[in-house]
Amino acid sequence: xxxxxxxxxxxxxxxxxxxxxxxxxxxxxxxxxxxxxxxxxxxxxxxxxxxxxxxxxxxxxxxxxxxxxxxxxxxxxxxxxxxxxxxxxxxxxxxxxxxxxxxxxxxxxxxxxxxxxxxxxxxxxxxxxxxxxxxxxxxxxxxxxxxxxxxxxxxxxxxxxxxxxxxxxxxxxxxxxxxxxxxxxxxxxxxxxxxxxxxxxxxxxxxxxxxxxxxxxxxxxxxxxxxxxxxxxxxxxxxxxxxxxxxxxxxxxxxxxxxxxxxx
Length: 264
Known about the structure:
Number of helices: 10
Shape: globular
Largest sheet: 7 strands, mixed
Structural class: alpha/beta
Distance between the termini: 57 Å
Order of helices and strands: HEEHEHHEHEEEHEEHEHEHHE
């Protein structure tokens, strides 16, 4: 290990110790209180003016990661929603498909002993994570009670085919068949925005928000795509469950509602 790496590790340890003296923020998952969350790529100051103007719904880049358990704001937000809506209770004895499984959410689900828990990712697979293409899910119709697809669709070129596949493998029996489909989208745009001319990491980062995103969803078109795929929208408003202080304290985006869908 080089001297620079040793110095970095010491500085990080000192920072994490001092940060714990604060009470301004709290990680909803690991329950530690501190001064600040980690920023995503330097925070909002590094977000393009174009992206800011679109009134995007997505991550809180200024309150992104917990230094202590490694969760991000989108993961914390799901924990908050799952607590309020008693979704954890539905996991026991359920068949679950979880795309790009977040570490803390994965651990919590495993503790609840689901009947079947399939973790899938197209690129980051191995060990207990299967290689699964969301546009060609290798399971029979009506297999899963719960599907979690948290900030994945913005990476998928043929997202309508992915929605069709998710619909196909989701159960439609009473009390079962819940799907969570979070994705960044713009409340200003009516139509999705994607163009073949936006073909470099730099351009995708400016216009789509990240170099591996392939579009910016428009709210109207995205929700209509869900309905056209056959889903019934059961969207849960953040403001209907949480206070403005909750969003600040736990470091989540107050504008990100829970996109919960079922089969019609």
